[in-house]
C-alpha cells in the first residue's frame, strides 16, 4: 500500500511478564526488534504506544492496578527498557492509549477490578489511578528526552467533541462541561498542571488526590511534545433525559438528527473532526496527529472475490478532506493513521464482523474461517491517497 507510518503498541508483558522484573525478556526484545527492522526496511515510520489496554494482569491482581503508586516505577522501568532496546528505530512514542478512558472502563485502562474496590471508593480510585498515570507519563517523557533528545513523546486522547442538542442554555452548559472533562487529561499532560476547574470539580466531589511531594514538579517538567487523538464521531448532549440515545466509542449520547450513522449506531461527522482539530490546536498549540479514525462495517465478499466497501472510502474521504481544511486554516497536523489497516476483532463489541480494515480477513465472530487475506476496494483507493499525500481523494 505504500504506508509511510504505522501505529503499533508494545505489549508490556512481552518485555516484563509480571511487570516486576528488573531486566526485559530477551525474546520479547528480539520480537519487537524484528518488527522495527522490517518497518525500517520498508521505510515505514513507527508510532509506538507503550500501554494500550494490556498492562500485566499480575500488577492488576497484586497491586489493584494503577491505584498503587508503585506502578509508576514499574512503568518507568518498562519504558526505559523500550527506549534502550528500540530507540534507534523509534522516534515517536505515546505513553497511554486514550488516557481519559479510565472512568469509562477502569479495568481495561488502569487494571482496576471494580468488585475488589468498594462502590463508594471506585470514583476516587479512578482519579487516583489517573494521577499515577500522569506522573508515570511525565517521568517517561523526561527520561526519553534525556536518552534521545531528538525523539518525541505524545499524549493520546479520545476526542469526544460534544454539541448541545439545542440552544437551550441548559444543553449548552452540559455540552461545555462534557468538553472540559474531555480536555482535562490533555491539559495535565500538555500544560503540566491540573486545570483549576478540574481541581475544583474533584474538591466538590469530595475526591482528594494523594500526591507525592515532587509530583507537581514532575508533571511540569515532563510535558508532552505533541497531542495524538482518536476521532470516530461527535456526540450530542441534552438536559432532557427523554431524548433518543445513540451509541458511540464506549459511550452513549443523544442522537444528532443531522448526522447519518453506521450499522452500529456511531454517528458520522467529518465536520466534527475539523472542529476538533481547530479546537485542540487553538487550545494547546502543539503538533497534532490523528491516530485512530475509521468506521466499523459488515463487508461482503463478491462471487469473484472482490470486496466493494465504498462506504468506507466515503467515510475516510470526508474525514481526510476535513483534515485538509483544518490544515489550510493553520493547524499543525503532522500525521494520520486509520483504525485499522487490517481486519481484527473489534474491542467494543468483540466481533470480527465489525470490520475496519483495508484488508479483509476470512474469519467470523466465532473464529471460524481460513484467515485468508483479501484486498478491499478501499485498499487500492487508500494506496493512491498515500501516494498523493492526501491530495487525490477521487
From TrEMBL:
GO molecular function, one term: beta-glucosidase activity
Keywords: Glycosidase, Hydrolase
GO cellular component annotations of the record: cytosol
GO terms, biological process: carbohydrate catabolic process
Record's keyword annotation contains NAD: no
Active-site residues (renumbered): 292 (nucleophile)
Family of the protein in this entry: Belongs to the glycosyl hydrolase 1 family.
This protein's name: Glycoside hydrolase, family 1
Amino acid at each position: 500500500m505504500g504506508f509511510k507510518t504505522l501505529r503499533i503498541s508494545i505489549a508490556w508483558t512481552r518485555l516484563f511478564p509480571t511487570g516486576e522484573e528488573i531486566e526485559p525478556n530477551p525474546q520479547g526484545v528480539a520480537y519487537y526488534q524484528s518488527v522495527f527492522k522490517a518497518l525500517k526496511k520498508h521505510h515505514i515510520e513507527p508510532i509506538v504506544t507503550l500501554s494500550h489496554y494490556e498492562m500485566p494482569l499480575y500488577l492488576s491482581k497484586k497491586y489493584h492496578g494503577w491505584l498503587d503508586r508503585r506502578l509508576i516505577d514499574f512503568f518507568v522501568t518498562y519504558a526505559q527498557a523500550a527506549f534502550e532496546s528500540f530507540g534507534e528505530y523509534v522516534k515517536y512514542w505515546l505513553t497511554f492509549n486514550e488516557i481519559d478512558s479510565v472512568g469509562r472502563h477502569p479495568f481495561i485502562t488502569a487494571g482496576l477490578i471494580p468488585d475488589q474496590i468498594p462502590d463508594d471508593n471506585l470514583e476516587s480510585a479512578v482519579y487516583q489511578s489517573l494521577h499515577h498515570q500522569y506522573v508515570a507519563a511525565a517521568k517517561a517523557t523526561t527520561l526519553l528526552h534525556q536518552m534521545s533528545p531528538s525523539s518525541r513523546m505524545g499524549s493520546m486522547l479520545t476526542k469526544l467533541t460534544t454539541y448541545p442538542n439545542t440552544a437551550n442554555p441548559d444543553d449548552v452548559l452540559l455540552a461545555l462541561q462534557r468538553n472540559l472533562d474531555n480536555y482535562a487529561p490533555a491539559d495535565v499532560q500538555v500544560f503540566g498542571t491540573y486545570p483549576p476547574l478540574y481541581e475544583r470539580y474533584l474538591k466538590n466531589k469530595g475526591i482528594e488526590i494523594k500526591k507525592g511531594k515532587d509530583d507537581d514538579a514532575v508533571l511540569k517538567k515532563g510535558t508532552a511534545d505533541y497531542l495524538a487523538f482518536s476521532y470516530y464521531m461527535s456526540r450530542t448532549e441534552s438536559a432532557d433525559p427523554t431524548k433518543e440515545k445513540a451509541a458511540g466509542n464506549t459511550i452513549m449520547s443523544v442522537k444528532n438528527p443531522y448526522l447519518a450513522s453506521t450499522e452500529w449506531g456511531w454517528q458520522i461527522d467529518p465536520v466534527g473532526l475539523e472542529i476538533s482539530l481547530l479546537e485542540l490546536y487553538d487550545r494547546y498549540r502543539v503538533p497534532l496527529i490523528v491516530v485512530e479514525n475509521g468506521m466499523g462495517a459488515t463487508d461482503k465478499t463478491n462471487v469473484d472475490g472482490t470486496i466493494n466497501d465504498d462506504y468506507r472510502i466515503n467515510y475516510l474521504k470526508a474525514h481526510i478532506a476535513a483534515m485538509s481544511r483544518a490544515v489550510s486554516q493553520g493547524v499543525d497536523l503532522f500525521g494520520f493513521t486509520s483504525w485499522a489497516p487490517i481486519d481484527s476483532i473489534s474491542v467494543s463489541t468483540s466481533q470480527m464482523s465489525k470490520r475496519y480494515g483495508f484488508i479483509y480477513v476470512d474469519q467470523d465472530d466465532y473464529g471460524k474461517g481460513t484467515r485468508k487475506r483479501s484486498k478491499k476496494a478501499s485498499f487500492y483507493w487508500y494506496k493512491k491517497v498515500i501516494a498523493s499525500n492526501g491530495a487525490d481523494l477521487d
